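Sequence, please.
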């Protein structure tokens, strides 16, 4: 909560974090806003890479090897100080991340619209980085429940707040490039692990001692780095004055794309069939993609086996321990490559949606995705690494593209007034998909193993079922139509709603002339360099690891 201060005319000056303090004034360059969003998304995106801690933490007591306690229950694991944690117990943090992301985004979306992105960004920084500090304390005390609470619950709330904080802001700054704008920011969430995972690995190697695996110190250092970046991003946010438009731009008319000129209130959006159809569209796209991400490494190893190290006649089960370790390294490069396409797809597909429309973009995801999931078993059967890897790289680009395109889809269908809050509620589809995708894929694989199958046959049924998920998404997308007029806010209702914010807007005092202009001037280039250099480093590391796939 921020404290307002008195001003000369008897009123109160808005607090430092208040929405009224971040209304842009003449001369502000809108291209400074996406780097601010990236500062936050690149930090919280480390959620995807948290598995880098699982193996070291599984031997936090034993140091060189896990000090396991046979038959230990999950409840006992939460409080033990003498036994090492199982990777399965640590993996619950990952589940908590995405369940809390969706629920907190849904719960706090309306508050964010009222409070503004700066206050939400600061809250996200405190939760995400504070959660890491609590987890570090949990490692020091060897209390798993503190890791669940710190990173999983409190950090998960930070994920939700940080993820949705820039959405409505960017859409308002870039009404002419909605898809591109959200793609630029949400690209950072996919890129966070690409930077954070190798950085965390380097830090753990630096801090490792005969009595410590270095994870506690690493979390504290990451928390400090992320807090600086996230606070810089939060304080870099600005909002355009109410009614602002880019100079010379007018909303498209008679377009073939489904873009409304009206707004649906937050209280009504979830009552429309369009909301639940788009919810299903996102859920199916994410379920299929996240299912693949969860099994990418073992899938490649078990399908191609010795082929990955130049021994095509040797199945994975016949490899010795040293060969399996080498194959695992190659598979890690495959996971890194998928992550890179996940990132690039967020920007590419979201930008393309500005040209072909959001609905057509999702048609592409589902039709092309179905074809690629049906192609993958054939590529595996003929042992074609190139075709197999290419298919999944494209699939993961569309997985990321689905996340980046959906905010613009919502703005097209429901208008921009409450798009951030509506997007927050829609992210419950992500929470649901985070359970459906991995559970379906893992149980199918287990059933195939029990049936005595191996190699490529282990995953054939999986690919077909994931293709069926995309068929469901395709049908849902086809059913999306413009919202019925009865759900649209009236002009009087919208004017009354905007009046409360318009009075505080800089446009009332200074006019809106010159706001948003500037392009890539020196401040914008410096801001983009601050986020671009870490991204470039992450891409370089990823490509180096991926080279082993085809070497």
């Amino acid at each position: 909560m921020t404290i307002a201060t008195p001003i000369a005319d008897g009123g109160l000056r808005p607090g430092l974090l208040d929405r009224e303090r971040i209304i842009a004034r003449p001369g502000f360059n809108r291209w400074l806003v996406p780097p601010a969003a990236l500062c936050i998304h690149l930090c919280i995106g480390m959620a995807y890479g948290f598995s880098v801690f699982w193996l070291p933490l599984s031997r936090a007591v034993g140091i060189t090897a896990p000090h396991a306690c046979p038959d230990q229950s999950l409840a006992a694991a939460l409080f033990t100080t003498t036994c090492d944690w199982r990777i399965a117990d640590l993996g619950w943090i990952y589940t908590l991340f995405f369940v809390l992301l969706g629920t907190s985004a849904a719960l706090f979306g309306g508050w964010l619209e009222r409070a503004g992105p700066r206050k939400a960004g600061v809250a996200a920084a405190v939760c995400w980085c504070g959660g890491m500090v609590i987890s570090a304390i949990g490692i020091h005390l060897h209390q798993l429940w503190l890791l669940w609470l710190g990173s999983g619950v409190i950090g998960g709330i930070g994920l939700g707040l940080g993820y949705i904080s820039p959405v409505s802001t960017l859409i308002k700054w870039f009404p002419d490039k909605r898809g591109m704008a959200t793609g630029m920011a949400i690209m950072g969430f996919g890129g966070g692990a690409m930077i954070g995972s190798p950085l965390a690995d380097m830090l753990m190697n630096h801090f490792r001692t005969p009595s410590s695996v270095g994870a506690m110190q690493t979390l504290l250092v990451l928390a400090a780095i992320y807090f600086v970046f996230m606070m810089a991003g939060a304080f870099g946010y600005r909002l355009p004055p109410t009614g602002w438009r880019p100079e010379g731009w007018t909303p498209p008319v008679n377009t073939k794309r489904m873009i409304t000129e009206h707004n649906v209130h937050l209280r009504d959006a979830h009552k429309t069939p369009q909301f639940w159809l788009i919810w299903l569209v996102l859920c199916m796209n994410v379920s299929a993609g996240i299912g693949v991400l969860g099994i990418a490494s073992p899938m490649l190893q078990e399908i191609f086996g010795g082929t990955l190290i130049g021994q095509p006649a040797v199945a994975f089960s016949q490899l010795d321990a040293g060969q399996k370790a080498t194959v695992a390294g190659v598979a890690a490069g495959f996971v890194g490559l998928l992550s890179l396409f996940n990132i690039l797809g967020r920007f590419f597909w979201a930008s393309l949606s500005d040209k072909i429309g959001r609905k057509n973009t999702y048609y592409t995801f589902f039709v092309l995705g179905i074809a690629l999931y049906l192609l993958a078993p054939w590529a595996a059967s003929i042992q074609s690494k190139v075709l197999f890897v290419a298919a999944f790289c494209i699939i993961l680009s569309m997985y990321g593209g689905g996340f980046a395109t959906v905010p613009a889809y919502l703005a097209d269908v429901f208008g921009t007034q409450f798009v951030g809050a509506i997007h927050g509620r829609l992210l419950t589809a992500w929470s649901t998909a985070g359970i459906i995708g991995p559970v379906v894929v893992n149980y199918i694989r287990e059933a195939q193993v029990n049936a005595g199958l191996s190699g490529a046959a282990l995953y054939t049924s999986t690919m077909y079922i994931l293709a069926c998920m995309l068929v469901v998404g395709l049908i849902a997308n086809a059913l999306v139509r413009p919202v019925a007029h009865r759900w649209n806010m009236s002009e009087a209702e919208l004017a009354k709603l905007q009046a409360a914010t318009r009075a505080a807007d800089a446009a009332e005092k200074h006019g809106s002339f010159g706001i948003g202009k500037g392009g890539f001037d020196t401040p914008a280039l410096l801001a983009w360099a601050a986020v671009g250099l870490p991204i470039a480093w992450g891409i370089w590391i990823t490509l180096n690891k991926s080279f082993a796939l085809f070497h």
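The two ends are 55 Å apart (CA to CA).
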